[in-house]
């Protein structure tokens, strides 16, 4: 029995589909039980128990885990857009921090739970000069989204160290691929702009560097970790998932236009505030301990995403 919080979001929908293909019995919790646009099909949704609600509702989270006798929890629900968290910090803290301790506390109080995986972020590390980030680096977020992830990450570690809760933490770079309709993010926006031959607006100066990882590689990482966390005795530990090939925003945009068969067409606003300039991860621990490595290069993942977006946008 598996609980996926945020099952209908970008990462959650992909993880749900992979687990369905493996025959898992899934309960999904999401503030939007049925989104208009998702990679989950109607048939997929018929095979999972969907519950509309928030991780901020402790009695609901406890009830779900207790009544379904949940064994594994993938906690993916979050306010995930940096801009939204800047506008509504209290909401970001409530969802990302309170929501996390609710999931952990409900798991602690249900003996059926064998493992919890908490989705953290590379943003939890904050801004640091020593790159790439490794898992033993301090968590030092400074702005609302970053701080919410630092806090949730530390709370998860506290539940293992204090109560022995079987929890692990995943920190990823920027995840991309089919099904991400948050066009405020650079890859969906750049792909749409290239496909529709429109000008891409870049909020920053274009020099910010990030690493980008294909969603299916992240899902495989989550599954490998869930299947091996007990055998490898890695409870309480964090793992970075990254393709370890950072690229600037401007460099990424140029790659997307080239792969789309278009000439670059962008406008740099240089208005980004409260964002970390350079941020990328080392996945050496995941390679060594879990035997996980991404199978999609940046260009291969982008080609798959462009093909999917082109088919979707042409249907609209």
Instruction: Calculate Rg over CA atoms.
Output: 19 Å
Oligomer: single chain
The arrangement of helices and strands along the chain is EHEHEHEHHEHEEHEEEHEEHEEHH
- Determine the number of helices (DSSP H or I, runs of at least 4 residues): 11
Residue-averaged pLDDT, rounded? 92
Low-confidence stretches: none
Reported by name, the CATH topology of the largest domain is Rossmann fold
Helix % is 40-55%
CATH architecture of the largest domain: 3-Layer(aba) Sandwich
Structural class: alpha/beta
Features:
Rossmann fold; alpha/beta; 11 helices; globular; 2 domains; UDP-galactose 4-epimerase, domain 1; 316 residues
Task: Explain how this protein is built.
It contains 11 helices and 14 strands. It is α/β, with parallel strands linked by helices and 316 residues long. It has 2 domains: 2-175 and 211-241, Rossmann fold, CATH 3.40.50; 178-210 and 246-277 and 296-315, UDP-galactose 4-epimerase, domain 1. The protein has a 7-stranded parallel beta sheet, sandwiched between helices. α7 (186-195) runs parallel beside α9. The chain is globular. The chain starts with a strand and ends with a helix. The relative contact order is 0.13. The mean pLDDT is 92.
Outline the fold blueprint.
Elements: E1 2-5, H1 10-21, E2 26-30, H2 42-46, E3 49-52, H3 58-68, E4 72-75, H4 82-87, H5 89-108, E5 115-119, H6 144-163, E6 167-172, E7 174-176, H7 186-195, E8 200-202, E9 209-210, E10 212-214, H8 215-228, E11 238-241, E12 247-248, H9 249-259, E13 266-268, E14 278-279, H10 284-290, H11 298-315
Parallel strand pairs: 1-2, 1-4, 2-3, 4-5, 5-6, 6-11, 7-10, 8-13, 9-14
Antiparallel strand pairs: 9-12
Helix pairs in contact: 1-8, 3-5, 5-6, 7-9, 7-11
């Amino acid at each position: 029995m598996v609980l996926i919080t945020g099952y209908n979001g970008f990462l959650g929908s992909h993880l749900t589909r992979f687990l369905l293909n493996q025959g898992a019995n899934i309960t999904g919790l999401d503030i939007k039980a049925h989104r208009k646009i998702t990679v989950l099909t109607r048939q997929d949704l018929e095979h999972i128990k969907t519950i509309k609600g928030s991780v901020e509702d402790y009695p609901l989270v406890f009830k779900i885990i207790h009544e379904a006798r949940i064994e594994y929890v993938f906690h993916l629900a979050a306010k995930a857009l940096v801009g939204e968290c800047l506008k509504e910090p209290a909401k970001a803290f409530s969802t990302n921090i309170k929501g996390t301790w609710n999931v952990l506390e409900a798991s602690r109080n249900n003996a059926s739970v064998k493992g919890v995986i908490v989705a953290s972020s590379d943003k939890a590390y904050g801004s640091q000069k020593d790159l790439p980030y490794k898992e033993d680096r301090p968590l030092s977020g400074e702005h609302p989204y970053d701080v919410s992830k630092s806090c949730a990450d530390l709370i998860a570690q506290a539940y293992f160290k204090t109560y022995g809760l079987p929890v692990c933490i995943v920190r990823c770079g920027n995840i991309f691929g089919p099904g991400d309709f948050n066009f405020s993010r650079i890859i969906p926006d750049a792909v749409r702009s290239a496909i529709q031959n429109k000008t891409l607006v870049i909020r920053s100066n274009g020099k910010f560097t990030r690493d980008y990882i294909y969603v299916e590689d992240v899902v495989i990482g989550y599954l490998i970790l869930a299947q091996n966390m007990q055998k490898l005795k890695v409870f309480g530990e964090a793992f970075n998932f990254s393709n370890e090939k950072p690229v600037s925003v401007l460099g990424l945009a140029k790659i997307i236009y080239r792969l789309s068969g278009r000439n670059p067409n962008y406008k740099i606003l240089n208005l980004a505030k409260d964002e970390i300039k350079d941020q990328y991860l080392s996945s050496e621990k995941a390679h060594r301990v879990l035997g996980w490595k991404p199978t999609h290069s940046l260009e291969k993942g982008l080609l798959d995403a462009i093909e999917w977006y082109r088919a979707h946008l042409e249907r609209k």
